[in-house]
Amino acid sequence: MRRGLFLPVVCTLGFVFLYAPIVSLVVYSFNDSRLVTVWGGFSTRWYVQLFTDPQILGAAWISLQVAAISATLAVALGTLAAYVLTRFGPFRGRAILTGMATAPLVMPEVITGLSLLLLFVAMEQIIGWPGGRGMTTIIIAHVTFCMAYVAVVVQSRLSGMDESLEEAAMDLGARPVRVFFDVTIPVIAPALVAGWLLAFTLSLDDLVIASFVTGPGASTLPMIIFSKVRLGVSPDINALATIIIAVVALGVVVATWQMRRSMRGRRTS
Amino acid sequence: MSTPAAGRGPMTRLLAALGLSGRALVIAVPLAWLALFFLVPFLVVAKISLSEAAIARPPYTPLWEWEGLRVTLFLNFENYAYLWRDALYLDAYLFSISTAFISAAVALVVGYPMAYFIARSPEPRRTLLLMLVILPFWTSFLLRVYAWQGFLRDTGVVNGLLTGLGIIDEPLRLLQTNFAVYLGIVYTYLPFMILPLYATLVKLEQDLLEASADLGARPVATFLTITLPLSVPGMIAGFLLVFIPAIGEFVIPELLGGPDTLMIGRVLWNEFFGSRDWPVASAVAIVMLLVVVVPIVFLRQIQAHAEERVK
Fold it and tell me: For residues B283 and B85, what is the distance between their CA atoms, to the nearest angstrom?
């Protein structure tokens, strides 16, 4: 009996540990009081404050643009890397590509950030590009570490895919490029969507790398959050967190619903 | 999948004329991007770590000078000597490694039963629990660390609860301690521990476990002699996925640690943004790279081994 209870209890405690901080952010975003321990009544004033703060709104707009562009480029490059690694067999440079496609996943962010900044400075000295730092340099940095995540997601889908589909298309005389776009891409589409969303989230969330490679005028949302949080309690950040959590929760519900629907569709057809 | 170029489309013919195949081009694109933006930067860091800080733009001395046909090299190992002489840096490296190690070990102890429970759950619940593990990963990491600040400060939730229940009279000092840093790292990286563990545990042959039970082994004995040894690859992978990035962690010690919590990521950040000493920051980064490269190669080998077994 004791053994039967141990695992569920530990698991429940683990989930409480994972979710309690998130729940507290949501609850206190509606707290009228500035203090965390005092409940001053229900209020939406932190949301009003958030949406009238031009600094936060500007940074959010920059972050969303950077994340959308980075995620799109990361999906393109990450998918290429994954395709080459799963379908091309042995080639020169394979080992180094494998290493470079996985190392960014665990590389400490301060190293990635510093090294990319120093590269940009050196390139500017030698070839005059990029002229100064800002959104472009953040996007390049984000594509580089996000494509590793995309490559992992797409690779697992590609290796699980039935290769006879591609072979059949090839036997029917389709050129490799055509096979890739007409057969492979539609089959791995869910992985591409998942990879894009993952890259978008990672880019939107990055503080350290962006802080290194940014320039004047391009402050992303995490940079603004970080400077506010460093100064102490700021309840409008709770409101921002609640909005992000709501969007993510909604996204997960929609994705699950879509997946269920497509699975049911596949079963009946 | 390589194709003879003759008689194909115009693009293929053009490439063939240039002595390239489509296949080579497809390989070249991701390879070139990663080489330029992931590999070359390390060489630049290594180069700058050998120069001297200067009041200039960019703030370091050149490594070589051309005088007609003569090249003069200025190799300066002073930055590395400085890291070795000043006890602060060595302490920061050792503290970072021990913090990452302790946190990864705690994450393993917390994550193993969770992964085990999820892997043994019946199907609809298993997917749900797995999703619940991944979900926090999708919400902002920075905001989740910030939430712990609210939990741990003297006037925070935990102290409010403990004083409210009459367990303590004075608020405990939780924020700005090493404890808070361990907690933050375990909290943030727990999904990275659970997922590889789950992946190994869920693949364990049910037959093996049943055979063991049929032969009269108690559940605990089956766990210790079969499940635990067979899940070692998952344990190592999970441990390294927490340990490696935690070594260079900046946000968690900055927001949850005290002023004396000197992790190496924070030291690098301060050298760069505070002292604006790019060469010393580069030397710090190169030494950190040497520290993480061994576990990274090790992790890569475990993953390659696991992939081979799947095939």
Answer: 13
Is pTM beyond 0.95 here? no
Question: CA of B213 to nearest chain A CA: how many angstroms apart?
Answer: 16
What local confidence, expressed as pLDDT, does residue A3 receive? 54
Domain boundaries, chain A: 55-268
Tell me A132's DSSP state: S
Average pLDDT value for chain B = 85
CB distance A235 to A28 below 8 Å: yes
Contact B104, B239 (CB under 8 A): yes
Backbone angles phi, psi at A195, to 5 degrees: -65, -40
Query: Among residues A255, A252, A250, A229, which one has the least CA distance to residue A240?
Result: A229
Mean pLDDT of A145-168: 89
Residues 105-164 of A with CB under 8 A from B: 106-111, 114-116, 118-119, 121-122, 125, 140-141, 143-144, 147
Whole-number Cα distances in Å, A213 to A67, A220, B268: 15, 11, 15
The model's confidence at residue A207, banded by pLDDT at 50, 70 and 90, is: very high
Say if B296 is an interface residue toward chain A (CB within 8 Å).
Answer: yes
CB contact under 8 A, B31 and A93: yes
For the ranges A39-43, A151-155, A255-259, the lowest mean pLDDT is seen at A255-259
Phi-psi region of B284 (alpha: psi -120 to 50; beta: other; left: phi over 0): alpha
> Helices A221-230 & A185-205, crossing angle to 10 degrees?
30
Q: Could you tell me how far CA B157 lies from the centroid of its own chain? A: 30
Locate B55 and state its tokens.
């009041």
Helix pair angle (A135-160, A94-106), 10° resolution? 110
**Side chain identity at B221, as an amino acid letter?**
A
Which domains does chain B show, CATH number per domain?
Answer: 21-73 (no CATH), 79-310 (1.10.3720.10)
DSSP string for residues in B50-116: TS-B-SSSSSB--SEEEETTEEEE----HHHHHHHHSHHHHHHHHHHHHHHHHHHHHHHHHHHHHHH
Chain B contact present for A241, CB below 8 A = yes
Low-confidence ranges of chain B (pLDDT < 70): 1-9, 11-12, 15, 18-20, 64-69, 71, 73, 307, 309-311
The closest alpha carbon to B109, from B4, B234, B193, B173, belongs to: B193
Report CA-CA distances (Å) from A82 to A61, A91, A237, A241, B124.
Answer: 31, 14, 38, 33, 30
Residue from B33, B97, B194 whose CB has the most chain A CBs within 10 Å, to mutate: B33
Spatial distance between the Cα atoms of A112 and A207, rounded to a whole number of angstroms: 12
Q: Which CATH class is domain A55-268?
A: mainly alpha
d(CA B106, CA B178): 14
